[in-house]
Amino acid sequence: MGKRLSKIVTRTGDDGTTGLGDGSRVDKDSIRVEAYGTVDEANSAIGMILACDSVAERIQVCLTEVQHDLFELGGELCIPGHQAIQASFVERLENELDAFNADLPALKEFVLPGGGTAAATCHLARTIVRRAERRVSTLKKEQAVREEVLHYLNRLSDLLFVIARQLSRAESGQEVVWDRSRN
Fold first, then answer.
1. Nearest CA among 55, 32, 54, 51 for reference residue 43
2. CA 163 – CA 75 distance, rounded (Å)
3. Which of 48, 56, 50, 151 is closest to 103 using CA atoms?
4. How far is residue 124's CA from residue 144's CA, in Å, rounded to a whole number?
5. Phi, psi for 177 (deg, rounded to 5)
6. Per-residue confidence (pLDDT) for residue 10, from 0 to 100
7. What is the pLDDT of residues 97-147, one digit of tens each?
8. Which CATH number fits domain 17-182: 3.40.50.970, 1.20.1200.10, 1.10.569.10, 1.10.357.10?
């Protein structure tokens, strides 16, 4: 893996560039930096979910594992050619998704973000993961990105949607659904 930082203020980014994990330098607004920066933002949003007292242990365990995965995924994006995300990570997400979804009723309406602090934060994390997926898709048009990275982000956004449904039911007893007739 890349260098460990012992000094935080280096001034090397004062010129608008940043160092990748392989030692090369790129502009701070490069699509690669946008991609792994958005993954980092998603990881922070998941941290906000975990900071909520109402989150069940089963969800805490799952999302803590996801945070570790996202750190690996960000590393893979930060170090060109590095491989960290495995198909088994995607499979684990699919299994978690199935387990969390098993006791939820079938959707008949669109779900609105809300239902409590943890649920709303989970919806926010989901949308950030979707943005990360879009940034990685853009990066893939220009540079090599392994399919596992996109698969992982796609499954993660689905998982966060299902977890948000679980959290909403736990926090407020119901989900907030879209109802156009309310106007």
1. 51
2. 25
3. 56
4. 28
5. -115, 150
6. 61
7. 999 999 998 888 888 788 899 999 999 999 999 999 999 999 999 999 999
8. 1.20.1200.10
Tens digits of per-residue pLDDT, 50-82? Answer: 999 989 999 999 999 999 999 999 999 998 889
**Spatial contact of 38 and 55, defined as CB atoms under 8 Å apart:** no
CA 159, CA 55: separation in Å to the nearest integer? 15
- Map tokens 């926090």 to a residue: 171
Per-residue pLDDT tens digits for 11-32: 655 657 666 667 667 666 789 9
Number of Cβ atoms within 10 Å of the Cβ of 124: 18
Phi and psi, residue 26, nearest 5°: -135, 165
Structural domain boundaries of the chain?
A: 17-182
Indicate the Cα dihedral angle 33, 35, 37, 41, nearest 10°.
170
Q: Which residues contact 84 (CB under 8 A, 6 or more apart)?
A: 72, 73, 75, 76
